[in-house]
Amino acid sequence: MTTAVHLEQALAKLKTTGVRMTPQRHAILSYLLDTMKHPTADEIYKALEPRFPSMSVATVYNNLKVFIEAGLVRELTYGDNSSRFDADMTDHYHALCEVCGRIFDFEYEPLHDVEEAAREQTGFKVKGHRLEVYGMCADCADIRQH
């Protein structure tokens, strides 16, 4: 599916939740849909600041919260105190490079049996799960070999 199709779907979803689309919101959402880098709020701010000089990091963060509440963006926290954001809401997992910090998407059959086991063993009403794989990306491994 193209970014334009994803953007149109996101805009339609926001409209049904009563969220007004501002130029800043449009730019933030478009940026997230275009990038595969899982940016922080600060990185989004720095990328958009030339086009929106009056926009603050707080504006970016507040709009990201709106998108999270609307189910359009997922917040990724990995213990380094800087949340990253992902507009790809499909079932997928992440591989994190412990050297450069980049996050890579990978697909794997959703682990519904893990959710079912948690439900059965704990009585939880499971909302979902998250899986991360840690290691070294190919670029960092190449650098280390030379």
UniProtKB/TrEMBL annotation:
<dbReference type="InterPro" id="IPR043135">
    <property type="entry name" value="Fur_C"/>
</dbReference>
<dbReference type="InterPro" id="IPR036390">
    <property type="entry name" value="WH_DNA-bd_sf"/>
</dbReference>
<dbReference type="Pfam" id="PF01475">
    <property type="entry name" value="FUR"/>
</dbReference>
<dbReference type="InterPro" id="IPR002481">
    <property type="entry name" value="FUR"/>
</dbReference>
<keyword id="KW-0678">Repressor</keyword>
<keyword id="KW-0238">DNA-binding</keyword>
<keyword id="KW-0804">Transcription</keyword>
<protein>
    <submittedName>
        <fullName>Peptide ABC transporter substrate-binding protein</fullName>
    </submittedName>
</protein>
<dbReference type="InterPro" id="IPR036388">
    <property type="entry name" value="WH-like_DNA-bd_sf"/>
</dbReference>
<keyword id="KW-0862">Zinc</keyword>
<comment type="similarity">
    <text>Belongs to the Fur family.</text>
</comment>
<keyword id="KW-0805">Transcription regulation</keyword>
